[in-house]
Amino acid sequence: MTAPIIGQSHDRPASLDLPRSPRARSNNNFEKYAWLFMRFSGLLLIVLVFGHMTIMLMLDGGVKRLNFAFVAGRWSSPFWQFWDLTMLWLAQLHGGNGLRTVIADYSRKDSTRFWLNTLLAVSMILIMGVGTYVIFTFDPNIS
């Protein structure tokens, strides 16, 4: 007979305790790809945001030149529409993914997690939809 492991009684075999997380692991790689997305989108957002801030705030007179006509001229170019759209979508998806992780970490009940994630998804879709609509339907000829 072997010596018992510390904390083990002689009448039952040693077993590993279940992990603290109540959720079962899945075989898909969603969390790995979400983690990679956070890293790459963060790097791209740094370039987009600092480029945006440099152009909007520091070049050609800075903030003083920002008005409706400036935005109308900027969004008349497909390049700037794509730039702003990419920044909007990446910021929403990056922030939403981070908030999804926080919800998963701190919500104890499955129903709470479900409703918070649903609210998060609806709000993200709404903001991305309205932002995309504004960028592509902006009319510089207001009456």
From TrEMBL:
The organism sits in which domain of life? Bacteria
Which keywords does this Swiss-Prot/TrEMBL entry list?
A: Heme, Iron, Membrane, Metal-binding, Transmembrane, Transmembrane helix
Q: Which Gene3D superfamilies match?
A: Fumarate reductase/succinate dehydrogenase, transmembrane subunit
Cellular location of this protein? Membrane
Q: Name one Pfam family in it.
A: Sdh_cyt
Q: Which CDD domains match?
A: SQR_TypeA_SdhD_like (cd03500)
- InterPro entries with a match to the protein in the record: SQR/QFR_C/D, SuccDH_FuR_B_TM-su
Q: What residue ranges are annotated as transmembrane?
A: 33-59, 79-102, 114-136
Span list, region Disordered:
1-20
* The name this protein goes by in its record: Succinate dehydrogenase hydrophobic membrane anchor subunit
Origin species, per record, is Nocardia callitridis
